[in-house]
């Protein structure tokens, strides 16, 4: 039910006020690869931006701090490569 | 009651992601683009969420059950291992490539963006593939 709420949130949001536009610059192929990496990575590392970044850091978990630093670092590197090197 | 609260929690979480710009990949990429025109504003989203969450979890730590009387399972694992770091590095690479992390990916799916649908489906495939590999190797 949490997921239903999350997926449906934009519908309810749109009823009350104008939805801000989301701009997706990545190509469909890049999005497939991105989705696969995010799917595997969040399972293997047991968490994501919310799980480790928000919940874990709120609880001052060292484990989550290490995870957050790791995914931030690789996010920075990948954006650097895709925006400035390719 | 549990389902109703779960639905409301999902809605509120989604509203936060939409309102803050986390559900906009261009904004996320701007946050990760420290060498370009860096937009650090999303750090405040995370900081704000942590500031609230800190007190919420402090309160949760004092309880044995949830407010609905269910068993409260807070993670007790504190080991830092290759799995945690490797998985996080893989996740971060995907996050930087598409500009989506799991929550916003699902929000974008709900918004009906074709890119969001492609991302969310690929993410589910990735998760299922991981489960399969886990099962066969363990």
What does this structure look like?
- The complex is a heterodimer of chains A (86) and B (138).
- Chain A has 86 residues and is mainly α.
- Chain A has one domain.
- Chain A has 4 helices and no strands.
- In chain A, helix 3 (49-58) crosses helix 4 (62-85).
- The longest helix of chain A has 24 residues, at 62-85.
- The radius of gyration of chain A is 16 Å and the shape is globular.
- In chain A, 51% of the residues are buried.
- Chain B has 138 residues and is an all-alpha fold.
- Chain B has one domain (2-137).
- Chain B has 6 helices and no strands.
- Chain B has helices at 2-20, 25-32, 42-61, 82-98, 102-111, 114-137.
- The longest helix of chain B is centred in the C-terminal third of the chain and has 24 residues, at 114-137.
- Chain B is globular and about 45 Å long.
- The mean pLDDT of chain B is 95.
- Chains A and B meet through helix 1, helix 2, helix 3 and helix 4 of A and helix 1, helix 2, helix 3, helix 4 and helix 5 of B.
Q: In DSSP terms, counting alpha (H) and pi (I) runs of 4 or more, how many helices of chain B?
A: 6
H and E order of chain B: HHHHHH
Largest interface: A-B, 72 and 87 residues
Main beta-sheet annotation of chain B: none
Which structural class should the secondary elements of chain A be placed in? Answer: mainly alpha
Proportion in β-strands of chain B:
under 5%
Residue-averaged pLDDT of chain A: 96
The oligomeric status of these chains comes to heterodimer
Q: How many domains in all of chain B?
A: 1
* DSSP helix fraction of chain A: over 70%
Name the overall outline of chain A: globular
Number of strands of chain B: 0
Q: What is the rounded distance between the termini of chain A?
A: 41 Å
Give helix % range of chain B.
Answer: over 70%
Task: List the main descriptive attributes of the protein structure presented here.
heterodimer, A: 86 residues, mainly alpha, B: 138 residues, 0% strand
